[in-house]
Amino acid sequence: MGRAFEVRKQSMMKTGAMKSALYGRASKEIYMAAKNGSADPLANLALRSAIDKAKSKQVPAEVISRAIKKASGSDHEQFIANRYEGYGPNGSMIIVDSLTTNVNRAIAEIREAFKKNSGNIATSGAVSYAFQEMSVFGFDSMDVETTLEYLMEEDVDVLDVVDEEGITMVYGSFVNFNAIKNILDKKVKEYKVAETSMIPNETITLEGDSKINFEKLTDWLDELEDVQGVFHNVE
Questions:
Q1: First-to-final CA distance of the chain
Q2: pLDDT, tens digit, for every residue of 82-109?
Q3: CATH assignment of the domain containing 194
Q4: Residue 136 sits in the same domain as residue 195
Q5: Are 95 and 10 in contact (CB under 8 A)?
Q6: CA 41 to CA 55: how far, in whole Å?
Q7: HEC string of 81-115?
């Protein structure tokens, strides 16, 4: 069904704030996975997946180990997850996942980002109907044909396997993330992508001021400490 790799990815790190936010997101995800299970990645699939995701985004090893060490101590931070939906310039659709210790701060900062960049927060369900939540894996250790044959031999149910910019991308149901990854782990040593994501059913193209304002909005959101993921339907 062919999906544009750039649509699925978050904005590239354009500022130090984005880089800091990325490391913070990875740390929180790894911390929660280790806190809710074993601190041993071999015994904790959720932790192993969080580590693979962090590595695919070039998060340094010391950031990863620090998060695991923190979870192994007496620290008991309580993170709350929320999903916000909104419209950007020219009717573009945006979904923002938040993971925070302060919900009021998170929504205030997310709302401000939309308001000051030609967008607005919408009600729950206003945007998400146009997306599918999927498991997404990307790697270059096997080509599409080899991957398809392997997954068929292992009787793994996936939605699509395609080549995108030289990377073999495997798309599967959101609920099948662990089942798919368990099988791929036997062949794939390093993932370019290993995560769940909101994939738009259709994409749109923005030009001129609409494109500029959209990029300002997504860049702003990417810099926020409490934002865990940004998904949209813009090419």
A1: 16
A2: 999 999 999 999 999 999 999 999 999 9
A3: 3.30.70.980
A4: yes
A5: no
A6: 14
A7: EEEEEEECHHHCEEEEEEEECCHHHHHHHHHHHHH
Residue whose C-alpha is closest to residue 195's, from 131, 136, 132, 133: 136
Tokens of 84: 């916000």
Tokens at residue 27, please? 């740390």
Tokens 């990854």 correspond to 181
In this structure, are 39 and 153 located in the same domain?
no
Residues 53 and 164 reside in one and the same domain: no
Residue 94 domain boundaries: 80-129+202-232
Q: What single string gives the DSSP state of each residue in 30-66?
A: HHHHHHTS-S-TTT-HHHHHHHHHHHHTT--HHHHHH
Percent of the chain with pLDDT over 70: 93
Q: Whole-angstrom Cα distance, residue 138 to residue 191?
A: 6
Q: Are residues 101 and 191 in the same domain?
A: no
